[in-house]
Amino acid sequence: MNKFNNVCAAVILATVVVATPAFGEAEFTMQIASGTPSAGNVCNNYLDVWADEVKEKSGGRIDWELHCDGTLAKMGDAVNRVQQGVADVAWDLPAAYGARFEALNVIGVPGLYGDPEPASGALWKTYESGALGEISDVKLLWVQAVVNQSLFMRKGLKSYTELDNAKLALGSQIRAAVIEELGGIPVALKVTEYYQAMAKGTVDGMMTTPAAMFDFGIDEHVTEIFSAPFGGGMSFVVMNNDFYNGLPDDLKAIIDETTGYERSKWASAYLRDDDNANLAALEGVTVIQANSKDLMSLQAGIDAGKALYLNGSPERVAYLDALSTALAVELAK
What we know:
Layout: H1 3-19, E1 28-33, H2 47-57, E2 62-67, H3 78-84, E3 89-92, H4 116-128, E4 139-145, E5 150-153, E6 167-170, H5 173-181, E7 185-188, H6 194-200, E8 205-208, H7 210-215, E9 224-227, E10 234-239, H8 241-245, H9 249-257, H10 261-280, E11 286-289, H11 292-310, H12 315-332
Parallel strand pairs: 1-2, 1-3, 6-7, 6-8, 9-11
Antiparallel strand pairs: 3-10, 4-10, 5-8, 5-9
Helix pairs in contact: 4-10, 4-12, 5-11
């Protein structure tokens, strides 16, 4: 190789070395768990994006391993696994824990919000203010308000304001109250049971979110979707207290910097946009958006769901008032 080529090779090598981040050996490796499918949007472009950001900001001192498909923690038990130290971080559904996260579940009141992004920011601010109590057994990293529940049907109905005994799978007492008021029959199932129920025709449809439908492949059994303000819901991400407390202050600061209010809004915006893109790509499925006349007819069902929530405990009125105030602030920005 001549002198000129040697110089060029040295320049190229130097450029590669500069452009490639040089991480040392990790001091900490986060074991991150999710009960959702590995091909779904929780495990792709979501948890991994945050974990990569933490790794980059820490210069590789915090690394990560992602365990999906319920291999390390199943939905409805992931928080327990984090508390026990089996996982360091986990995604889960607070509604699966009943009264344990009752205050956070205020986000699921029907008719409360349309866009989940400001709703997520409002929920975080409300929690941060102390108005929703404190979660002490794990560290809450961020919340993710989801798109409002819709009706995903095997076959279309003549009317979605009079459900005429249609059997609908769902996983919430609030949703059940809405469905019953509108003349449907609620069938309590776990999200992981929806696919078989739809495939076998055990139910006529389900009330859930687009993300759940796509993550579990249920869209192949859906021919019509009806969207209305039936109420949202949320997921959250939590961290083991001992893992967080065991970090030096500079690494704790990175965790704090990459979580909280902005991460909550980012999480909901990501999910909303992903849902919308997937819905737009559906073929052979009719999507119906409730019009003003529909909304008037649906109001009794929405009110029934709200009343069921508020009647659950005396504290719930205060939870809803605090969140509604925070949401007004977010929407005014």
